[in-house]
């Protein structure tokens, strides 16, 4: 069912941010509200310049653009270039799936999510920016893919529930990777401090 992964993962994310984040966390309320808004807008769509765009897709793109606008000029240029690379990756996958679907051996949601997640991880070491660049790149990829199909008289709704499934899955993969990096860094620091204490004692 289209949208199953999106709804399940975003609801799970909302539960985590609402009930498990510390109440003093600076972005707890903002992140919870952002996730709820993304879920609520998933049932709406508007038509812009002949393209049918899901409300969640517009909301994600606008919110990422607002966040990116706070970056310095140098970081902003790199961010936009990175999102362009993710966009091309997404479009190439979608076109490959369209023309040669028989080669997509594993479930396409997982394959696309893993692909764009790997690209985001290669482009960014910053935990927040890698998620944002993935989100924007995939939404822009949807727009470009829809534009390409309209040139051949096909209609393709941008950021539909069918497309939001791999997006949510990619976000979950990156969040899990960020969590893994955090725990590895935490244990390395603790191990280093324990070794220092042992050196002092000896």
Automatic annotation (TrEMBL):
Question: Would the keyword DNA-binding turn up in this protein's UniProt record?
Answer: no
What InterPro entries does its record include? YphA_Bacsu
Q: Give TM regions.
A: 6-22, 29-47, 53-69, 76-96, 102-124, 131-154, 166-187
Do you know which Pfam families this protein is assigned to?
YphA
Q: Transmembrane: present as a keyword of the record?
A: yes
Q: Which keywords label this protein?
A: Membrane, Transmembrane, Transmembrane helix
Q: State the name under which the record lists this protein.
A: NADH dehydrogenase subunit 6
**Source organism of the structure:** Niallia oryzisoli
């Amino acid at each position: 069912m289209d949208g199953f992964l999106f709804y399940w993962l975003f609801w799970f994310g909302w539960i985590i941010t609402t009930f498990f984040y510390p109440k003093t966390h600076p972005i707890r309320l903002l992140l919870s509200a952002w996730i709820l808004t993304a879920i609520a807008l998933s049932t709406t769509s508007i038509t812009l310049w002949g393209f049918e765009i899901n409300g969640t897709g517009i909301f994600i793109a606008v919110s990422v653009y607002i966040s990116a606008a706070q970056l310095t000029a140098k970081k902003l240029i790199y961010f936009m270039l990175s999102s362009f690379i993710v966009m091309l990756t997404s479009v190439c996958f979608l076109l490959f799936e369209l023309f040669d679907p028989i080669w997509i051996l594993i479930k396409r949601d997982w394959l696309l999510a893993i692909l764009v997640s790997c690209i985001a991880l290669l482009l960014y070491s910053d935990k927040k920016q890698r998620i944002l660049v993935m989100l924007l790149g995939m939404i822009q990829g949807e727009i470009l893919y829809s534009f390409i199909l309209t040139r051949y008289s096909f209609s393709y709704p941008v950021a539909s529930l069918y497309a939001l499934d791999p997006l949510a899955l990619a976000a979950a993969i990156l969040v899990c990777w960020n969590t893994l990096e955090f725990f590895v860094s935490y244990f390395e620091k603790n191990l280093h401090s324990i070794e220092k204490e042992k050196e002092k004692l000896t």
